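Known limitations

Files may contain more than one protein. Parsers should not assume a single record per file. Below, a two-record file is shown to illustrate correct handling: read the sequence, read the token line, then continue until end of file.
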Amino acid sequence: MSEGVGLEKIPLENQPHDCVFSPNSDHIYIGLVTGEIKGFGFNDTSFERKLRVRPSKKSCRGLDISSDGSTLYAVSKDGSINYVDAHTGQISHTKAQAHDNPISRVKLTMPNLVATGDDEGVVKLWDTRKPEAVRAYTHHFDYISDFYYEDPQRKLLTSSADGTLSVIDVRNNKPEPVGHSDDQEDELLSIAPLAGTSKYAVGTQLGVLSIFNSKQGWGDCVDRIPGHPQSIDALVSLGPSILATGSSDGLIRVMGVLPTKFMGVIGDHGEFPIERMKLSSDSKWLASMSHNEELMMTRVDDMFEDSDGEDAAEDADADMAKDDSDEDESKEEAEEDAEMEQQAEAQEKEAEAEEEEDSDSDSSPEPQPEPIKKKSKKNKHFIDNDSSAAFFDDL
């Protein structure tokens, strides 16, 4: 049992390719490049290895688990599928050559129905009780990068490096998709739903997040959201229109979609690209993996509660500040209006006073010159005299 202040990572000794949480217990299973599958029990502060099995000598490239948590479905580079008991590690069944090419992804859809996709774009559906594939789909021509299964509608979304997204109805007996997008001119790498909507986010090689709307058809995306500096290799839905994105720059970002809002970075794998991310069934833990030999565990259950509280407090403060500002502005406007009225009244009074003065001056007799005017005239004559220049020269 390894313990610490808080669970942050699980060392693995080898590079991981995929992982899956148990749906009904605090266990996680990791597929490694060596072909091994390791299972760990964990809590908030510690982890303990519970399982170690090697069903194939080639790398384990994909993992999924049954709805009751009893069986692991593991796919390998050698094209094989193995059913493994999640408690004992016992291999119950092996399909040695399930695909002619390395298998890249696996997904449990309906009970006893498993989907697999390989490096050449072939998708197969398997009834776990039968030895042969139920159906095979060949509409993709490059590797299958991700699966997402929409349970109520029984639809399997498939992304491929050929630049297209397809939708398979797992109940339909025809080996054709019910929807297939146009070429998006970019590799499609990951899929996640926008919870509470009919929209899906798809990560691309160029770092653009493409949004598809099932109500508007699958021919083309309805929106494109740039912003990631490198490819978006992994996507996980954390809540209504909230996504965790794993990029080739090693960062795990949280962002809101429609409206678009960058909410922060919650994980950093350093210089290594993020290959896969999975969310626990209770939405408490986000597991992520890169090219280093460890599994990063990030708590995500309480991050939005704190942020919501802070946002609410900030909004309340902003509203109070706005109200105070509005009151101050109203007072200033009232004072300005009063001052303008006073000025107008003063101007009116001045105008009336001037009119009275003008009327008084018109009616009064012309004033008589005072004796001093004569003196002033004499002074004027003295200055105008031609001898004044000599007078000033003498001074």
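...continuing to the second record:
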Amino acid sequence: MSVITLIAPRCDRGEKTADTGAVWLRVRQNDCEETMKAIRVTALTGPDDVEHLDVERPVPGPGQVLIKVAFAGVTFPEVLQTRGMYQVKHDLPFTLGSEASGIVAEVGPDSRYSVGDRVAAITGKGTFAEYLIAGDEATVKVPDSVSLAAAAGMPMNVLTADFALRVRANAQPGQSLLVHGAAGGLGSAAVQLGLAMGLEVVAVVSTEAKAKAVRELGATHVVLADGFKDATKEIYPKGVDFVFDPVGGDRFTDSTRVLAPFGRLLVLGFTAGEIPSIKVNRLLLKNISVDGVAWGGVAWGHPTYIHEQWDAILEHVAAGRVNPRIHATYPLAEASSAINELDGRSVMGKVLLEAAGE
């Protein structure tokens, strides 16, 4: 018996069969929205040149979901990816974006999720679009108490902060934490998560406006970047237990000077642009250490890791103790402006792109 597959121009997806006697007709009801809008990187020439284009709407495979994107979070890796400067390279052209929230629109075979689930996902690329494909291992359910806007701002920053503080540092209640870039997306996540874990948090910022923003987050102490070493020493004469540093540059040496004996400097990135170096005798003489924090290298190599982390912090998320401060929300079509604002170092909290919205 022959099998013929027809494509029917229907606005829902599914499959029906009909027995004609001699021939089985299999009719796929194809969604009328065969294309979608997405932000594409077609040349590595910076944020100004990303393009808002029509691309084919993807179909989920086994263990995957199709998410109708509500919001996508803008992260610093996107700034670097538009210039080809990020450590993870993608072949051109590609759809930009690392994280998003939304509603499950379609599920692939054997997926743990259901159509209609409220979720957030971290995929490394592809989230600056009206729809995205995410594997079950990279997707988490969003509590009803959390808005989809807030959820879009959590995956990259909050999971990185959790990996730094809970896993790499093994931070305990009552210990002290200094956070550089505390008003930015990653820094503010570290401030909130540190406070939720019972740490005393010193937030380092570059302006008085940013100082106001981190005070609203509840930071225990706030100091300006200019002169942060002396200001921190006045608060903690013996030094702090941990320094959380996504900035690098010329702050690095003074960061080692504010550490208490057995303190740890957590290196998360170099938004200042300069990769610093250190004379290792300083580590020897003070009994301090410098620890690399590469969350992605662990998460992508362990299929259950993101879910394990999400379970560990879910109580804080659901209770609102971890709740991103939204700096600005741009329409998807204005992704270039959103990325440029992040690149300008003026952001206080999280920048989002809105696709379908709440």
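Parsers that stop after the first record will miss the second one. For reference, the second record is described as follows. The two ends are 48 Å apart (CA to CA).
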